[in-house]
Amino acid sequence: MNESELKKLLEAVRDSEMSIDEACGKLKDLPYADLGFASVDHHRAVRTGYPEVIYGENKTPEQIGMIMSELAPKGGNIMATRCTAEMYLKVKEIVPEAVYFHKARIIALVQKEDTDSAGTVAVVTAGTSDIPVAEEAAVTSELMGAEVIRVYDVGVAGIHRLFARMKDIERADAVVAAAGMEGALASVLGGLVNVPVVAVPTSVGYGANLNGISALLSMLNSCANGVGVVNIDNGFGAGYLAALIAGKCSK
Amino acid sequence: MNESELKKLLEAVRDSEMSIDEACGKLKDLPYADLGFASVDHHRAVRTGYPEVIYGENKTPEQIGMIMSELAPKGGNIMATRCTAEMYLKVKEIVPEAVYFHKARIIALVQKEDTDSAGTVAVVTAGTSDIPVAEEAAVTSELMGAEVIRVYDVGVAGIHRLFARMKDIERADAVVAAAGMEGALASVLGGLVNVPVVAVPTSVGYGANLNGISALLSMLNSCANGVGVVNIDNGFGAGYLAALIAGKCSK
Amino acid sequence: MNESELKKLLEAVRDSEMSIDEACGKLKDLPYADLGFASVDHHRAVRTGYPEVIYGENKTPEQIGMIMSELAPKGGNIMATRCTAEMYLKVKEIVPEAVYFHKARIIALVQKEDTDSAGTVAVVTAGTSDIPVAEEAAVTSELMGAEVIRVYDVGVAGIHRLFARMKDIERADAVVAAAGMEGALASVLGGLVNVPVVAVPTSVGYGANLNGISALLSMLNSCANGVGVVNIDNGFGAGYLAALIAGKCSK
Amino acid sequence: MNESELKKLLEAVRDSEMSIDEACGKLKDLPYADLGFASVDHHRAVRTGYPEVIYGENKTPEQIGMIMSELAPKGGNIMATRCTAEMYLKVKEIVPEAVYFHKARIIALVQKEDTDSAGTVAVVTAGTSDIPVAEEAAVTSELMGAEVIRVYDVGVAGIHRLFARMKDIERADAVVAAAGMEGALASVLGGLVNVPVVAVPTSVGYGANLNGISALLSMLNSCANGVGVVNIDNGFGAGYLAALIAGKCSK
Amino acid sequence: MNESELKKLLEAVRDSEMSIDEACGKLKDLPYADLGFASVDHHRAVRTGYPEVIYGENKTPEQIGMIMSELAPKGGNIMATRCTAEMYLKVKEIVPEAVYFHKARIIALVQKEDTDSAGTVAVVTAGTSDIPVAEEAAVTSELMGAEVIRVYDVGVAGIHRLFARMKDIERADAVVAAAGMEGALASVLGGLVNVPVVAVPTSVGYGANLNGISALLSMLNSCANGVGVVNIDNGFGAGYLAALIAGKCSK
Amino acid sequence: MNESELKKLLEAVRDSEMSIDEACGKLKDLPYADLGFASVDHHRAVRTGYPEVIYGENKTPEQIGMIMSELAPKGGNIMATRCTAEMYLKVKEIVPEAVYFHKARIIALVQKEDTDSAGTVAVVTAGTSDIPVAEEAAVTSELMGAEVIRVYDVGVAGIHRLFARMKDIERADAVVAAAGMEGALASVLGGLVNVPVVAVPTSVGYGANLNGISALLSMLNSCANGVGVVNIDNGFGAGYLAALIAGKCSK
Amino acid sequence: MNESELKKLLEAVRDSEMSIDEACGKLKDLPYADLGFASVDHHRAVRTGYPEVIYGENKTPEQIGMIMSELAPKGGNIMATRCTAEMYLKVKEIVPEAVYFHKARIIALVQKEDTDSAGTVAVVTAGTSDIPVAEEAAVTSELMGAEVIRVYDVGVAGIHRLFARMKDIERADAVVAAAGMEGALASVLGGLVNVPVVAVPTSVGYGANLNGISALLSMLNSCANGVGVVNIDNGFGAGYLAALIAGKCSK
Amino acid sequence: MNESELKKLLEAVRDSEMSIDEACGKLKDLPYADLGFASVDHHRAVRTGYPEVIYGENKTPEQIGMIMSELAPKGGNIMATRCTAEMYLKVKEIVPEAVYFHKARIIALVQKEDTDSAGTVAVVTAGTSDIPVAEEAAVTSELMGAEVIRVYDVGVAGIHRLFARMKDIERADAVVAAAGMEGALASVLGGLVNVPVVAVPTSVGYGANLNGISALLSMLNSCANGVGVVNIDNGFGAGYLAALIAGKCSK
Fold this sequence. Notes:
Eight copies of one chain form a homooctamer.
Chain A: H1 3-14, H2 20-29, H3 33-45, E1 52-55, H4 61-71, E2 78-81, H5 85-94, E3 99-101, E4 106-109, E5 120-125, H6 131-143, E6 147-151, H7 159-163, H8 166-169, E7 174-179, H9 185-192, E8 197-201, H10 213-220, E9 227-229, H11 235-249
Parallel strand pairs in A: 1-2, 5-6, 5-7, 7-8, 8-9
Antiparallel strand pairs in A: 2-4, 3-4
Helix pairs in contact in A: 4-5, 6-11
């Protein structure tokens, strides 16, 4: 029951076309969401401008293309994560305007360029192998309207590389730190910047890295303050949270 | 906003004392639960007769007593789990009618004896050390109105003990299987009875039992059908689920 | 020794064709199961109407077809889980009447339609990726005679979707909740319905989902009452348990 | 080497009182931090207003009191976490102005009341047992100048309780979600609000909660976007990150 | 139904005092164990001479004393494991003949000295801290009639100590290897002797020994052949299995 | 230095052809094993008759063939485990007498048939999927000269199947219990037989079976006595240990 | 800012071409590393002679060839680990002088043969399957100028093999112990040599070896002193650390 | 059989007082260690100067005192780790010259001051809570003759603290890095120094630090080269290995 339907019901009551009891019953018999959750959806609408997201891992290109086509008329940006170049070719047949971010493995339908500043996000990686996750974060942030500063391959074993780039990093409203192996980057960064750090552990490494658990635990146990952690390899989640923070900060 | 308030609002609309827009706004601005969730609570009411439950582990006797006092006027049974005898003595000062089930470590305020049959639950244990968990299950089932058949210390290493008691077990509408160590009881029982088995792993054992994880995994991997598992040492949960099933079955 | 053989033995005793000692010896020398376990089998017979189940994962189509052929004369339903479409084509050559449930990955030989009501099961999923597990549960329940209500893609991150479907879910005698990732659906559902919830964690997700362990632990630790858990991705087990409960309830 | 010392050195060069080689050598032989890291400390200064934090777990009251005394002249707020009431009594003898937040287990020396708005943080818990962790978060946020909205005991098993409080929660610039057991609160909240959610798993529960690992994994696998996770029971870290975000947002 | 009752039934059939159908029904309705499991118990009787065992961990001295008193008339040895000296003093009041093996933490009622050789067991430990577990094994083996050779503190980090004792160890029919930390003793021993090695990991160590898991995994992965493993700290189980093997071997 | 060389040295001393110091030096300078470990090897010789074993998993057929060729002249049996049929075809080109045990995945060169009884081993499995591991055990035992009784697919969920075969199992001197999923077979068997049980967990199952860890933990925590456990899927190790025990027992 | 640039700045100050304030500002505005970390890099230069290392696992041959080409002019040795023979063929097209160490899976550009002794490293393995990891260690040590003694397949289950090679091992300044399964080699070696032992667990094994975790835990819990552990299968790290120690020792 | 006994045997052979066969037999019948392992012990003697070590955790003061008394006549240093001040008071009654290192929890009998340089070890900690472990390492190194540089509380969250102390750390021949929580210190240090780093994870932290597992995994996955890891909280092992390396390096 949307607002106009609700108004019609109330008008019917006002005009005595519907009894109080009948109206009361109809309102009580509504599916749960219809009234109470109009409010919920209303609040969600504040998030307009954020992209619709499709988790592409277990979906066929046809499914992705179809969902994109359905969402397109809303006019916002739409992105599908974890997509291969092969998948893109097939999605493009269905949604010709779709573009592909190769390193980020993201297919996107960009319908809206956020021109007003939505803040700045720095995406920092420890190694070159962390770049796919970092790019997923970076492109996500960009699709949410943020400016993104990419600072890659500045792991703590050669800490002078990180320091050489600190001036860049300090410009950001939020920092994404992507690192595998021992994941120390998040702690070092957390101690150097004065904005929130979103730490994303990557599964880069082998053996006792336990597919990313090692970096995950490091980041959760960070001795630095102001660090929040997302799931292993969850570049999208990191980019989303960082852009959410940066967008707020820049306003 | 309860029903009478809703009716007043509608009457105000009918009597043109409130504009359509004002009424529409009020309905939209309601706290989430006020309308939609009246429905939820209504459905919960079907569960009347089931006891109110207080998890006593981290609460003081004073807190438990106070909560019991508050819930008492509703007239249903109230139970607090994981309570020591010492706690009971103090709760009794606040709620004199409270009784204590020693083995089950449950304090209960029994205000309603379910006289109509709510089904039969068999509570079976592998060893004597599993009895506290089993009693928590058994007393919970009883407070929910079920008849309980206790069959203790019939672990699979001496499987003739179990078979000697099968006639009793087969009378039940649902079976609780409580076992620590290797937890094999659930699988064997699952193969012998034709009613749902609620498996509750206990932390009984040492070393590679990993505080109950061993039994938990065994039960989850049961090669028998019709077995559902609850948390380690969660006698209450097992008893609740079994009585819920048995109560349905007996109707 | 089946019943007729037992009778013959007793007749021989009655007719003095066999001495007491000889009869006594024969009875004692019987393989374990022959007498005592006739009783076991008798009780199992109560479960007639439930399908025979073949776990297809590590079997060849030939093996599955052969087992189906052997079981067919009993007249009940037979199902093989975790079968691909390729396997079905080969099984069909051996058992031409076999049908294939694509989403559920189940090959079935349906010889008996349960026309009398065996209760209603709602199968609910958090996401679309949980559907294969959910379908395994749904088809299993249906082959056991239950009516199944499918409610898919109503995860808690968009909780209004779940509420919009609660009217449907509340019709069920038992609910299957299939969810991966954080598995929160089981807890939320457990708090909304007043029937047993069978929670089946799925391996959907990545990284810290640990192939389903995350959802499994969530479900075991559910703060809602009346929830029983089965193994990760065990749609069959969930459907079986739910139909077992629902079948009982509906009688 | 601070700035005035650096200037003196350069003046000595200018005045030919020091040779180029000698100056070059001195600059190269400086302890690492003396020049390059003056810059680091400068940037850290931006964080002025944030409290100095002492992790009290393994410290004696004497140590805590002494550190507080040393930090006091800087004029900012100072807080010590994980302190018992007994510890406070002894700390108070050394630092008489120190106050104690009982539920939060925090001793604080409040020297500065942030009167200008530093944003609003909602601290939400699933159960009453999560309150100590939540209070640690709430008091930390308050000491950083944030307004804090406390919404306790609104776990998802009785989800109408949460909805009844959503109006309050939606006022916040950042939300802390503290939950043990299955930790589903973070996902549900993440789907309802449009600000960052800082999820803090608590060790509340038993058995398969694995001392908080269950809630931790749930939160990391949240299907909702915009959720960052901190260590188990790390109320301080959650409160710090939330206030950091809220402070930025409110400017 | 024991043998005499069975004969009576058959006589009644023979004498036509009972119909075939009635007899058939009675035999089918027998409790499971009554006939079939007489056979089971009969086979168990072969194990006579082995001690009755009481796991003392969670039992009161009164319970232990009572169980011992009940078992005593059977005439065999009775042992209670994991008992403190304090417990012994109280058990002794109930069972005055009970003796206490201090290092092994075993209370025993020795009613039968096995004079005929039941084989030889060598019990070997890596360190001195493994001795309590080793003694539990050794005393168990002795109570089962085995001769026990104790070889303690011969861990592989000083492997000459082990070699100096090989002549003794080689006399055994079965070897118990008790070791904590890295548990390498089992592999080295397995390569040196030509009899079965029963490996018992101990929880001796700290940190990454994970309460014995490290030694357990080592022993399970032993590159030596002929090694069987029991639970962490399960001295009783190791001694029982070794004596079972040795007893067989010596016959 | 073998015995004849040692004698020559001593003769040289006796004949004063070598000084005491020179002899002493030579003896001290010997490689470690040359003297002391002749003894070790001598003892190992007692194990003659046991097959030489090659772990085939990571080896090429060429390597396996070559090792077999080298070991062949010793005259004993040689076996290579975890070999595919493809590998066998290539090994056969190098070692034409080699035979292949398909289900056991073992290539063997049988040069010696143990005609004198080396005891009897029963190999029991819970399901049909456990058969490859069981066959590896069975063939290993046979190659060590044991008679093997195969009892497959008698898991505890249909416990009458196990009882129906107990007469066969009871003939054995040692029992191998192979089971995946919840691994309950080992405990049940351990309670029914009076000989050692070698439990081998298999990786059969999915989800919470954790690739065999579930069955492994079950077996380690067995409440039955006389059970020793080997590594997951280690059919060879189980068969070796069982035959070692049985061989001893039968003498 | 390198030294010559720094001198130019100081000369400008001396020559009054630059004001004190301007110079001070420039020095403070330098990127972090430019001054302070010149010192860091200076110290790193001491490590000259050590090879540059490229982790080849996730890189394309093109990337590896390109990085090698860039590093080549520095004149030191360059190595890429975890490279297949196929990768080598493509790298060779870019860097024709590159050589391939097959067993070690290392592509190297050897531009400098360390003729002066950089110490001796013994690389010891438990089995033949550990050789790839061991070769990675050995070649790494050699590329760092160390003499390497290879002692393979001397696992502790046949400990005489190890002793027969001790004379060789004792020549080393540092020992690498590579072992999978139970990893006992490190402890035994640690007790026999008087130089540091670098233990590298390998993932060799199956089941409860947990992909190398078993050997890792064993090595961390070694009861021998003087043992340091690196990551599972990290042959490079072990060879690097051992050569670092040996190089120091030999000076 | 020591050297003089061996000579006597050879003299008896030379003097024809003992036959060749008898001598041969005696040599072969020697306990394993008597000849071959004299060599082992001889090599161990090279380690003279290193302290004898007693692991005090599970020992009584009486046991420690007694062992110290027995070892004292050898003249070397003796140390007992993990001892409380209370234990020291009792040990002192038995060994009056024993001294106590409070922070290191070490009781030592110092009989030999290593005046000749045995190298320099830097012991670095991330926080103040890591100091007990660090002191155990430092005192161990000192008792082995090394000079120790203590650099405490320089964790990476405030990395300028570490850089301010690098000049000190760079003087060392080996570095011990002790850190809990995320353990990032080892990686950062590993990248800054050109000597071996011995990383010792501490159990400092809570929640997802998993009692030190988090720091352990971080250190094992260090992206820096030249890092070897010891067990959690194993200060002794770290100090021993570092001093072993430093001692070698300084010669």
